[in-house]
Design goal:
single chain; alpha/beta; six-stranded parallel sheet; elongated
Length: 184
């Protein structure tokens, strides 16, 4: 193959590279950057009759009364869904609330936060709530698995570990103080 490329004249090689680039642009999916909303510290609000593609938020919240046609990802903030989120909803260190009759097309993942689902909420795939709390009525429809790990599974061992380290450091300091006082 390399020998064949060396036998081609330079103009033919350049033309084939341009053709490959144009071909890849023709089959590439269209970018949706104009419909994506990314915020740092400012709440993302989607009005009732509006829609966006993806919503990504750091240290802020997403309040979606309208449709979100992509993913919702929030770090250190809350998510409120009023009608529809077509793909995944992911939240770290915040709360997720879905109003009645809401549809989530993909997964719902919450780490270290509270998940509250209203009546007749539909989740297309899995619901994962790790180290937080989860409340939902019986009318909630989940297409995949429901994985709920309560907060105490994380916090109790962590507090025991921190208490053990504190006790160890305290005892070492007390023994050092006793040795110093014995010398006087």
């Amino acid at each position: 193959m390399i020998g064949l490329a060396r036998m081609m004249p330079a103009s033919a090689r350049a033309l084939s590279v341009v053709a490959l680039l144009l071909g890849s642009l023709a089959i590439a999916p269209p970018a949706r950057a104009a419909q994506d909303v990314v915020q740092f510290g400012n709440t993302i609000k989607v009005p009732k009759d509006a829609s966006i593609h993806d919503a990504v938020c750091f240290f802020c919240s997403v309040e979606a009364e309208g449709a979100v046609n992509g993913d919702i990802v929030v770090f250190f903030g809350n998510v409120e869904i009023g009608t529809k989120a077509s793909h995944d909803v992911v939240n770290f260190f915040g709360n997720v609330r879905a109003a009645n009759e809401t549809t989530i097309g993909g997964d719902l993942v919450s780490m270290f936060g509270h998940v509250e689902l209203g009546e007749n909420v539909s989740v297309g795939k899995d619901v994962v709530s790790m180290f937080g709390s989860y409340t939902s009525p019986d009318s909630v429809s989940i297409g995949g698995d429901r994985v709920i790990q309560p907060a105490w599974i994380f916090w109790v061992p962590l507090m025991l570990l921190v208490s053990g380290i504190w006790l160890l450091v305290h005892e070492v300091r007390v023994r050092r103080a006793r040795r110093i006082l014995r010398g006087y």
